[in-house]
Amino acid sequence: MAPRIHIKQQQTRSQSCRLDILIVGAGLAGLGSAISCALAGHAVHILEAAQEIKEVGAGIQVLPNSSRVLQHWGLEEALTPYMTFPSVCNFIGWKGNKISHLDFHESESNYPGTWYRDFHRADLQRCLVNRALELGVRMTCNARIATVHVSDDGATATVVAADGRQWEGDLVIGADGVFGKLTEELLGRSDPPVKTGDLAYRLLLSTEEMRKDPELAPFVNHPQVNYWLGPDAHAGLLHSMMLFDLANFWQ
């Protein structure tokens, strides 16, 4: 039996050693930061711009390094019902020729206790939210942060929302995404997103409907990760429980 990853227990800190941490953004990065800081015994408050934390996104892969972290945070039991167990990752030419592959089961044996799994992004995010709340993390939605002010002595920072509300903390972590403002505050200059010329299309299909099609059914009955590579583009198929993710990236 493969060794289990150690589950970190939440530390208890005295008031003098506990930081008040503000995290801007409740995406995967913000939630992961919140869980890690809360487990270390700090007081954590997430500020999210959206009016509510909605279930959005498509398929997402969890590879050995990240699976180790999720287990360390005590999330394996909560995540298990939402896992899909792909057996292999195939790289296929756009004309159908097989280029290469990675056997996930064989690869897992090189990293004992870890795994390759597929999820729907919303399921992963929901489990992270629940774990953060279990650890005492506070969450405030509809809080779009416009700026951050650092105190004169550098001991604290105050984040200011677009509607004027303010929160003070010992540490501010920016996880507000590509359209967020905290990166610009850190750099001291404008840092708008750069258009790359790429587009991504994603589709979610019911696996029950796919099972009715003889050509699509094998993708559901024998979960695999498949990438079709072509000139200046690729398409990827991830099987994620009752959902199927098709992503096309065009340059």
TrEMBL record:
Q: Return the Pfam families for the record.
A: FAD_binding_3 (PF01494)
Domain annotation FAD-binding: ranges: 19-186
| Residue ranges crossing the lipid bilayer per the database entry | 21-44
Q: From which residue to which does the signal peptide run?
A: none
* Example of a GO MF term: FAD binding
Among InterPro entries, the record links this protein to: FAD-bd, FAD-dep_Monooxygenase_BioMet, FAD/NAD-bd_sf
Q: Which UniProt keywords apply?
A: FAD, Flavoprotein, Membrane, Monooxygenase, Oxidoreductase, Transmembrane, Transmembrane helix
User: What is the similarity comment for this entry?
Assistant: Belongs to the paxM FAD-dependent monooxygenase family.
What's the protein name?
A: Unnamed protein product
Query: What organism does this protein naturally occur in?
Result: Aspergillus oryzae
